[in-house]
Design brief:
Helices cover 51% and strands 10% of the residues. With 189 residues, it is an alpha/beta fold. It comes from Streptomyces laculatispora.
């Protein structure tokens, strides 16, 4: 197993041309703003991309990126288990942009909501639905309690089941042609 390291945004910016940057967020999040030169391979496609990532790592350093650093850290752990060295961007694209580094945006990226915003909409809507229906059918208020409990669990474990479920929706999935082109570009890097 290979250990992974964390790289601060300023360190990554200084060496950006030395990295194969892999953004593990869903395509909608990637389109809304990503580190320049980043390739989009959503976290749930990392295993399928292992051969391309191994080839890219043999030619240079891999830098895994997400919104906050959590998913990229998970990706680094999966790569480490496969013997592929990789680093994670500390604080993700949020810290990158906060420190004044540029983000590239894909065409139509401003129309796509980030995963955190999608989770807030879904959770808020379900809570309101549970409360509204609960005025007539009292047990429906349990939906609101379940969502609240899920949010607390999400905060305590630093994971999010709702985000995992939303990531499976069609608008959050890469088109097969996009993923194939990304993997081909990594093989050629």
């Amino acid at each position: 197993m290979t250990a992974h390291t964390s790289v601060l945004p300023a360190q990554a910016a200084a060496r950006l041309d030395d990295y194969a940057v892999i953004d593990v967020r869903n395509p909608g999040e990637y389109a809304s703003g990503h580190v320049p030169g980043a390739h989009n391979i959503p976290l749930d496609h990392i295993r399928a991309a292992l051969p391309a990532l191994k080839a890219a790592a043999a030619r240079g350093d891999l830098l895994m990126v997400c919104a906050s650093g959590n998913r990229s850290d998970t990706a680094c752990s999966e790569l480490a288990a496969a013997g592929i060295p990789a680093a994670t961007l500390t604080g993700g694209t949020g810290a990158w942009a906060e420190q004044g580094h540029p983000l590239d945006r894909s065409a139509g990226g401003s129309r796509v909501w980030g995963m955190e915003r999608q989770v807030r909409l879904a959770a808020g809507s379900l809570v309101v639905l549970g409360l509204a229906v609960g005025t007539r059918y009292r047990p429906a208020r349990g939906l609101s309690a379940a969502i609240g409990g899920g949010l607390v669990f999400s905060a305590l474990t630093n994971s999010c089941g709702m985000a995992a479920a939303l990531a499976r929706l069609p608008h959050n999935r890469p088109r097969p042609a996009d993923l194939e082109a990304t993997l081909a570009a990594l093989h050629q890097r």
